[in-house]
Amino acid sequence: GQNIDQPTEMTATEGAIVQINCTYQTSGFNGLFWYQQHAGEAPTFLSYNVLDGLEEKGRFSSFLSRSKGYSYLLLKELQMKDSASYLCAPMDSNYQLIWGAGTKLIIKP
Amino acid sequence: GAVVSQHPSRVICKSGTSVKIECRSLDFQATTMFWYRQFPKKSLMLMATSNEGSKATYEQGVEKDKFLINHASLTLSTLTVTSAHPEDSSFYICSARTGDVTGELFFGEGSRLTVL
Predict the structure, then answer these.
(1) What angle do CA A46, B46, B3 make, to 5 degrees?
(2) Three-state SS for B79?
(3) Of A62, A21, A28, A26, nearest in space to A45 by CA
(4) Which of B25, B77, B80, B86 is most buried per CB count within 10 Å?
(5) Which ranges in chain A belong to alpha helices (H)?
(6) Taking an 8 Å Cβ-Cβ cutoff, which residues of chain A contact chain B?
(7) How confident is the model at residue B40 (pLDDT cuts 50, 70, 90)?
(8) Cβ contacts (< 8 Å) between A31 and chain B: which residues?
(9) What tens digit of pLDDT does each residue of B79-104 get?
């Protein structure tokens, strides 16, 4: 079956760095997306990785290892507004996004 | 980025009535739109794929007659929850891509439905 595994919740301090890990099992693979979702709002796109390695975009970076079925989202210089859920969503062979429940990130002052 | 607009953002209705939710791509044409449902602290659940000019493709377990989807134009898809019941109360979200199948999804603002 298809499966996404992310921590349910993480807590970090403002200004610090946090890494949110995601392991996945899918039927085929066509890349992996990370989305941010604030409570009560729709998800917004953060990143897309299809090749192994690190993609950096400002304070956010995303890493992918296809052989390990593993990805992480790295958030630097955390701000209070980064408090949200972070959704790891790999795309399977049918180009369907497989959604996990996400990781709720709590930022403390 | 591209803009997808969803309306209404919140709706409260009585049990047995029908509710229509609109999803519009404001600055691009979307041949395909996706409708999701999300329960609190749960993952997005794909309900159906809406195809312009043809019937929607529903995911297993989603009632076609309950959740009517119409994709009448390249910029508008509608989801109608028919004969709504309290268990239909949920957060409904639409999304669309601007380009190919590996492109990012742009989401509407979501519609919170409460059925009394």
Answers:
(1) 45
(2) strand
(3) A62
(4) B77
(5) none
(6) 4, 30-31, 33, 40-45, 48, 50, 87, 91, 95-97, 99-102, 104
(7) confident
(8) 102
(9) 999 999 999 999 999 999 877 777 77
